[in-house]
Write a structure and sequence with these properties.
Order of helices and strands: HEHHEEHHHHHEHHHH
Largest sheet: 2 strands, parallel
Number of domains: 2
Radius of gyration: 21 Å
Helix content: 40-55%
CATH topology of the largest domain: Rossmann fold
Structural class: mainly alpha
Number of helices: 12
Shape: globular
Distance between the termini: 52 Å
Strand content: 5-15%
């Protein structure tokens, strides 16, 4: 599922900056901008360590969606092994899962969400995650950052509820429609994982598991605080968003057909070769 689409539709494209696959390089380019350019940014999206708000205009706030830690690491491992365009693909494609967990070179295979949210970063480079060992105190730091600087920390497993809560807190007056993307199924490309694999990943991510449980509890409290009308609003939103997604993909499908038809038409009108 994507949070980016729901956010990007609310902000000007020329005031939006995306941190892409080359995370560190993109953050360094952001830091190199002059202050006036950085303060014009309305929306900064991507994977980054807590702290980049210091580069933006005063009052910048965060939103984030955390994910079940075990599923997150397994999904990332599949993604890096299959995505030939990713800078880490060449390094990860021949690694076993155990080797990937032990390598630590991405900083995300073990307690990566805690690392990002607690503000771990390379000295002098906010936003670029550090590599130092983490402890229980870093989970506390992450939760304190969420309480102070975040509009909302939601969970992917309760994505619709999280999105509704975020929209309410941001004062949006229309539904936060989104389109499901980037769905990787376990077993795609022959990737399957054993119970032992899941246990190994869980052991390496015990801090993230504690963080995830705390964030999920916060979502539950926020839903309860939203009152009895929230469930009815959520039901309506899910129904309308289903219609929105069907219309979106139908438009995409028809667009592809039109482009193919236009291509054939151009081809039919091409002059014969001599």
């Amino acid at each position: 599922m994507t949070l980016r689409g729901a956010l990007a539709s609310r902000h000007r494209r020329d005031r939006t900056v995306v941190i892409g696959n080359d995370i560190n390089a993109d953050i360094e380019r952001l830091a190199d901008l002059d202050e006036a350019s950085r303060h014009r940014i309305e929306l900064l999206m991507g994977h980054m360590s807590f702290g980049l708000h210091t580069l933006l205009a005063p009052g910048a706030r965060y939103v984030t969606i955390v994910r079940d830690p075990v599923e997150r690491v397994l999904s990332e491992y599949r993604f890096l092994r299959s995505n030939t365009r990713h800078p880490f693909h060449a390094r990860v494609k021949e690694m076993s899962l155990a080797e990937y967990l032990e390598s630590g070179f991405t900083g995300q295979a073990a307690n990566g969400q805690t690392r990002l949210l607690c503000g771990s970063h390379v000295p002098g480079s906010p936003g670029i995650a550090g590599r130092e060992p983490l402890g229980d105190e870093d989970v506390s730091r992450a939760l304190a950052n969420i309480d102070r600087y975040f509009v909302l920390a939601g969970t992917q497993e309760r994505f619709e509820e999280s999105l509704m809560l975020m929209a309410r807190r941001l004062g949006w007056r229309s539904w936060p429609f989104f389109v499901v993307r980037n769905v990787t199924r376990a077993g795609e490309r022959g990737e399957t994982f054993s119970l032992q694999d899941h246990e190994r990943v869980a052991s390496a991510n015990h801090l993230d598991i504690a963080l995830y449980r705390a964030v999920n509890a916060g979502v539950e409290r926020a839903i309860a605080d939203a009152g009895p009308g929230f469930a009815a609003s959520l039901e309506r939103f899910v129904r309308l968003n289903g219609i929105y997604q069907r219309l979106h993909w139908r438009r995409v499908q028809y667009g592809r057909r039109l482009r193919r038809a236009a291509g054939r038409l151009v081809g039919d009108r091409s002059p014969p070769s001599s």
